Amino acid sequence: MLARTAFPGICDTAECAELFLMTFPSHSVMRPALRAFGAACAAAIATVAFAGTAAADDGELPVNALAAEITAEADLAIEAYDVYIETDGLVDYLVYAKHRAATARLAARQLGYNQFAMIDAWSDASLVHQRAVLAAMSQVGVPYRTNASVEDEGFDCSGLTSFAWGESGIELNRISGDQIRSAAKVDRDTAEPGDLVHYPGHVMMYLGVDDAVVHSVNTGRTVEIDTISARKVDSVTFGNPID
């Protein structure tokens, strides 16, 4: 009831548990039980990798099933982030944290991942990483465009990463290989949401949990929440653009 009073409009049990977790210190005895409850809720949710089709400028393209919800929450999170950065106020931070958590939760649902693991990964990342991830999430469903990096219109793979990090104030080279070479190499265990994930010819952004990424795939596809290809999972390189 406290969570619903503080954040009107939130009514599903997983969201309420997550908001309670935000209010309890990390050592609280309540947190393990709530986290287990959230994991059970996540496991009970049936997810679909992609909707059948969705309209795009050049025809019908496949998009993530939750794309519209994800981009709506990401836009709200970005707006709240900008307010919080300007004011540094607690209330403004809580509004931002609510929308950041909602975006992370939707990303996890899209992949069938543990929602609280995704929420925690994003909240533990640096603010610049968070802003970069949210910028990429705001473009889910936007068509792939060769040599493009135009908000709400089209991206190739390095166009998306350069756009997302540019929104966080970090300029990246437009060539995928140059992006990863300029980044500080990190391993999967220490990679943050927003870090680059690269294999020759393609660059993605890590979402902080298991093999979850967001990327602009190839012609005929869109910006998508996805997992690293099983054929590439052992050969990818992770890089932090700000270290």
Outline the fold blueprint:
Blueprint: H1 2-6, H2 13-23, H3 30-44, E1 54-56, E2 59-61, H4 67-87, H5 90-111, H6 115-124, H7 127-137, E3 149-150, E4 154-155, H8 157-167, H9 176-182, E5 184-186, E6 196-199, E7 202-206, E8 212-216, E9 223-227, E10 237-240
Antiparallel strand pairs: 1-2, 3-4, 5-10, 6-7, 6-10, 7-8, 8-9
Helix pairs in contact: 2-3, 4-5, 4-7, 5-6, 7-8
Q: Residue share in helices?
A: 40-55%
**Relative strand content:** 5-15%
What is the tally of beta strands?
A: 10
CATH architecture: Alpha-Beta Complex
CATH superfamily: endopeptidase domain like (from Nostoc punctiforme)
| Biggest sheet overview | 6 strands, antiparallel
Structural class: alpha+beta
Model description:
- The protein is an alpha+beta fold.
- The chain has a single domain (45-240), classed as endopeptidase fold (from Nostoc punctiforme).
- The chain has 9 helices and 10 strands.
- It has helices spanning 2-6, 13-23, 30-44, 67-87, 90-111, 115-124, 127-137, 157-167, 176-182; strands at 54-56, 59-61, 149-150, 154-155, 184-186, 196-199, 202-206, 212-216, 223-227, 237-240.
- The strands form 3 sheets. It has a 6-stranded antiparallel β-sheet with strand order 5-10-6-7-8-9.
- β1 (54-56) and β2 form a beta hairpin.
- α2 (13-23) packs antiparallel against α3 and α7 (127-137) packs across α8.
- The chain is globular.
- 44% of the residues are buried.
